[in-house]
Design brief:
single chain; alpha/beta; Rossmann fold; Helicase, Ruva Protein, domain 3; 4 domains; four-stranded mixed sheet
Length: 587
């Protein structure tokens, strides 16, 4: 009678276990030294050797002639355990025997000494399936077990096992087997079984096995059923993976932005009975392989799923970058998760394909990153506004932009103002104010320098020089004072002060006057967050007896010839503000 390869080639000694040396070496030393625990917990993914090592340990502890920690498999105890005739070694499936009564039956038998071997061993597979009451019953005997009793628990979901159980067991974690070790073992088995397995076919099966030796042997058994050479093409055909080429063509349509061809191909696959959930999974696996290939070109070969040939991956990698692959994979993963709850899976899959063809339809951050990447590479064909911007339609033949200013200025009574920058150094209060031409008479004012008392006499600066402050001890000058404010003010606030065309300061021993060019700058700078640090720094540098007053004022009108630090008229409201107790005076 034919026996499946994974059963026929089950490991008979610890040395034959593939890829779990960190577990087998420890178990061998414990058996050889006799320092055995009463409970073991084997964890790990499927097909990595948990049950095989549990059976090996059960034979090793009862073997009459162990060989360096391995069972001899020739004594009566080993042969009886292998054949199942010794009832002192019992294998229990917790998936079907998970009730408290099943555990109580074991506890009733556990108190009796074994009949033919040294230790009574219970192997409980999938122990995480036990109920809470069953775990509580098992905990009682795990806490104080008889000397002749040993429990070996195995699970694929360690997080479901209570901490009270784990703390009373020696825990061994079985890891996924490397594809190279699996391929090497498959070639060894195929040689013994006279199967024509090629190295490429073995590598493909090893990647498809996802780290499980049992899965790899089962796949080899399936692919070698018809005889002949087992190569990559044979593996893809035997395992039904030839349809992955359709998934690759579908992704190629999405990469080219050809939504029509992608929808037509999807319709053909749907008519042939293709399940939409399976199609989403195949596309996800393909995009994942492409992402691994792009991000880890050297060491990522062992991370591939193995369902797609190298030529297909190479072609798709040339047209898809990493941001686009991340966007695609995230969209496919979300779609695959939503298909289980979808009322119309075909419609959801069509919507996913349309979004894959046009990243602009994906509002997620990954979709935005994909669009930015395409823009940087010039992949979306976006040109500059100067080259592709459509000309505006107007009824007149002349340029509307040039007609706009005359049309606006013609409706005004006064002549158009000269085209000047918004802030000019000549317009600041310490400069000689220019006189505009052709100003209406109602806007002109007659300067009265003799009617306005000037502040303390200050020597008139040169036309291109900055305002000169009195010689006050400790005052370093406005440029140096401004540099010392750099750390005390926010960057956005300091940017206004760092530009001499926007603001300029002068200190007369009691008052720091900050002149600005317009109302906007006065509103921005006349805030305690700016004036308070300026007053504190000025007080610290000059050591003035009185508290320093910070005054923020706007430059006077261009036709005013009064000194910048004195108001034009003695307005009662301004006089009241000037005599108030506030340390900030706004002019």
């Amino acid at each position: 009678m034919y026996q499946a390869l994974y059963r026929k080639w089950r490991s008979q000694t610890f040395d034959q276990v593939v890829g779990q040396d960190h577990v087998t070496q420890t178990l061998k030393r414990q058996v050889a030294s006799g320092r055995l625990s009463h409970a073991y917990l084997f964890t790990g993914t499927r097909g990595t050797g948990k049950t095989s090592c549990a059976k090996l340990l059960a034979r090793a502890v009862n073997c009459e002639n162990p060989q360096d920690g391995n069972p001899c498999n020739r004594c009566a105890a080993c042969r009886g355990i292998l054949s199942g005739s010794i009832l002192d070694v019992l294998e229990l499936d917790a998936a079907s025997n998970n009730g408290v009564d099943d555990i109580r039956a074991i506890l009733d038998e556990a108190v009796y000494t074994p009949a033919t071997v040294k230790k009574r061993v219970y192997i409980v597979d999938e122990v995480h399936m036990l109920s809470n009451q069953a775990f509580n019953a098992l905990l009682q005997i795990l806490e104080e077990p008889p000397e002749h009793l040993m429990f070996i628990l195995a699970t694929t979901e360690i997080h479901k096992v209570p901490a009270t159980i784990k703390s009373r067991c020696q825990q061994f974690a079985f890891k996924r087997i490397h594809p190279g070790r699996i391929a090497e073992h498959l070639l060894h088995v195929s040689e013994k079984e006279s199967i024509g397995l090629t190295e490429a076919g073995a590598a493909l099966i090893a990647r498809l096995a996802d780290g499980g030796m049992r899965d790899a042997l089962s796949l080899l058994d399936q692919c070698s059923g018809g005889g002949g050479t087992v190569d990559e093409e044979r593996v893809l055909s035997a395992l039904g993976l030839a349809g992955n080429l359709e998934a690759a063509a579908l992704l190629s349509n999405a990469a080219d932005g050809d939504a029509a061809s992608a929808l037509e191909r999807l319709d053909r696959l749907y008519a042939n009975g293709k399940e939409m959930t399976a199609l989403a999974g195949e596309l996800s696996a393909l995009v994942r392989d492409l992402l691994v290939r792009k991000t880890a070109p050297r060491g990522g070969a062992g991370l591939m799923t193995g369902g797609f040939d190298a030529e297909t991956l190479k072609k798709l990698s040339a047209v898809l970058d990493v941001p686009r692959l991340v966007q695609m994979l995230g969209l496919l993963q979300r779609t695959a998760a939503d298909l289980a709850r979808s009322a119309n899976r075909r419609t959801d899959m069509e919507l996913c394909l349309v979004t894959l063809c046009d990243p602009a339809l994906d509002p997620s951050p990954a979709g935005l990153a994909a669009r930015v990447s395409r823009l940087e590479q010039g992949g979306m064909g976006v040109s500059t506004p100067a080259s592709k911007a459509p000309a505006p339609v107007h009824t007149g033949a002349s340029d509307p932009v040039r007609e706009e200013v005359p049309a606006r200025t013609a409706s005004r009574e006064e002549p158009p103002l000269p085209d000047e920058p918004p802030i000019r150094e000549e317009e600041l209060p310490w400069k000689e104010p220019p006189v505009r031409q052709e100003m209406p008479s109602k806007l002109k004012t007659t300067p009265k320098p003799e009617a306005q008392p000037a502040p303390p006499p200050v020597e008139a600066p040169a036309p291109a020089a900055r305002p000169v402050s009195p010689n006050v001890p400790g005052w370093p000058g406005w440029p140096a004072f401004r540099e010392q404010l750099r750390g005390a003010l926010a960057v956005s606030d300091y940017s206004f002060l760092s530009n001499s065309a926007m603001a300029e300061g002068r200190f007369d021993g009691r008052q720091l006057t900050l002149w600005v060019a317009n109302d906007f700058l006065r509103d921005m700078l006349d805030r305690p967050a700016i004036t308070r640090p300026m007053a504190e720094l000025c007080q610290k540098l000059t050591g003035a007896a009185r508290q320093t007053v910070v005054k923020v004022g706007q430059a006077p009108a261009e036709d005013a010839s009064a000194a910048p630090s004195v108001p034009v008229e003695a307005d009662p409201l301004e006089a009241f503000l000037g005599q108030g107790g506030s340390n900030i005076v706004v002019e």
